[in-house]
Design a protein that fits this description.
Protein name: UDP-glucose 6-dehydrogenase
Enzyme class: oxidoreductase
Strand content: 5-15%
Oligomer: single chain
Strand order of the largest sheet: 3-2-1-4-5-6
Largest sheet: 6 strands, parallel
EC number: 1.1.1.22
Number of strands: 14
GO molecular function: oxidoreductase activity
Radius of gyration: 24 Å
Structural class: alpha/beta
Helix content: 40-55%
Pathway: Nucleotide-sugar biosynthesis; UDP-alpha-D-glucuronate biosynthesis; UDP-alpha-D-glucuronate from UDP-alpha-D-glucose: step 1/1
Bound molecules: nicotinamide-adenine-dinucleotide
């Protein structure tokens, strides 16, 4: 089938590569010239495990192409996927400017029936706005073309995106037209073989489903962080509590890890956008506001723990930082806890020596070269001459380090662990002063 995808970011590129992988003819459109030029050369602008090979293989097979031209995109696909960013507006609501720009350009260039698929995370009612924007342009063109708008939210996780797309838990299709249900079913058939994963519903419910999923996951994290802070004050160990509650199948072990807050391109902005949607309809979504507030506070924990150890003034210190990405297996630093920590440290005149297996280029893109940030080639190199170590991303390679080497390299044997990777007992035995989240230390 012929598919056009607007936006070649984490979602658009993965969607394009996976749809091409199963045999579709896919054209990806982006407005970012640098990105498109890289992709035309088979280079991948983001870090996503396995994506480079899949993109290169499908380019070689002639099933995956890239262009800057929206007109070419509209001419190509029966399916027109919108996978552009929906960043937070100044008031926290989702900024739909990119989505509506794409909708208008589809209407500007279309010469016949198209299915417009909203894959970006968009507030309830966006499909109506997409339809209205398209009708306005078609009216200006005095051109009467048929089209359908479908909501097809994406649930992939960065770092495991290919697997999530190829073997989805569910494929949510929001539509008001049985004809599009059948066409979407056909498009997704290769990902729907072992059992029917298609969940078909009305458009508004599909739009809300995506926000509901992210808000639920964010709530689980903030709930555990709230409890972790209480555990600390009560002399309890949140890790024991986690296992104690996770063993209840009604609760489960997923997503109840305490830590220094969630980040990324989705949870923070989606919780915020859902809360703003509530406000717009005159509803006070108190739980969502609390989830957001708890997370905001939690991101300060590593900094607070450093102050607990060294006192309020950290000026002149050098901190080794392991992890920059908002989670392992991605180079995405949007809303990453590392950023809150580094920015707080820099304000106090602290030098940061950081290491991340894949996000250092992204870190340079965001912060540029600065004298108080040293990006190190290895985790060990980041320790050289530093006073203490802070961990904010739970990369696998940080899970079982050589603690004797850490001790010998740091000026002070202090670890602040924002992801609870180590055992406080083991750290005590090694003579390391260890601060974790919700573990009485
Ligand atoms: N990243 C995730 O893990 C994830 C998961 C599920 C859903 N989502 C949602 O999917 C959407 C995209 O997220 P992302 O992380 O892929 O964003 P991204 O920022 O990585 O990519 C967006 C891309 O859209 C391009 N773009 C902007 N305007 C355009 C236009 N007019 N035409 C063509 N391209 C245009 C940008 O240049 C950019 O390359 C968002 O709504 C997000 O909330 C993201």
């Amino acid at each position: 089938m012929k598919v056009t995808i607007y936006g070649s970011g984490y979602v658009g590129l993965v969607t394009g590569a996976c749809l091409a992988q199963v045999g579709n003819d896919v054209l990806c459109v982006d407005v970012d010239e640098r990105k498109i030029n890289m992709l035309l050369n088979g280079e991948i602008p983001i870090h996503e495990p396995g994506l480079d090979k899949m993109v290169q293989a499908n380019i070689a097979a002639g099933r995956l192409k890239f262009t800057l031209s929206a007109a070419e995109g509209v001419a190509h696909g029966l399916f027109q996927f919108i996978a552009v960013g929906t960043p937070p507006d100044e008031d926290g609501s989702a900024d739909l400017r990119y989505v509506l720009t794409v909708a208008r350009s589809i209407a500007q260039h279309m010469d016949g029936y198209r299915i417009v698929v909203d894959k970006s995370t968009v507030p309830v009612g966006t499909a109506d706005r997409v339809r209205a924007a398209m009708l306005e342009v078609l009216e200006q063109r005095a051109f009467n073309a048929e089209f359908d708008v479908v909501s097809n939210p994406e649930f992939l996780k960065e770092g495991a995106a290919l697997d999530d797309f190829m073997k989805p838990d569910r494929i949510v299709i929001g539509t008001d037209n049985p004809r599009t249900t059948e066409l979407m079913r056909e498009l997704y058939a290769p990902f729907n073989r072992s059992h029917d994963r298609l969940v078909v519903m009305d458009i508004r419910s599909a739009e809300l489903t995506k926000y509901a999923a992210n808000a639920m996951l964010a709530t689980k994290i903030s709930f555990m962080n709230e409890l972790a802070n209480m555990a600390e004050l009560l002399g309890a160990d949140i890790e024991k509590v986690r296992i104690g509650i996770g063993s209840d199948p009604r609760i489960g072990y997923h997503f109840i890890y305490p830590g220094c807050g969630y980040g990324g391109s989705c949870f923070p902005k989606d919780v915020q956008a859902l809360e703003r949607t509530a406000r717009e309809i005159g509803y006070n979504a108190e739980l969502l506001s609390a989830v957001e507030a708890v997370n905001y506070r939690q991101k300060d924990k590593p900094f607070e723990k450093l102050q607990k150890h060294y006192g309020a003034n950290l000026e002149g210190k050098t901190v080794a930082l392991w992890g920059l990405a908002f989670k392992p297996n991605t180079d995405d630093m949007r809303e990453a806890s590392s950023r809150n920590l580094m920015e707080a440290l820099w304000k106090q005149g602290v030098t940061v020596q950081a290491f991340d297996p894949v996000a250092m280029e992204e870190c340079t893109r965001i912060y540029g070269q600065r004298p108080d940030l040293k990006l190190c080639q290895t985790a060990e190199a980041a320790l050289e001459g530093a006073d203490c170590l802070v961990i904010v991303t739970e990369w696998q390679q940080f899970r079982s380090p050589d603690f004797d080497a850490i001790k010998s390299k740091l000026n002070d044997s202090v670890i602040v662990d924002g992801r609870n990777l180590y055992s406080p007992e083991q750290m005590a035995k090694k003579g390391i002063t260890y601060y974790a989240i919700g573990r009485g230390c």
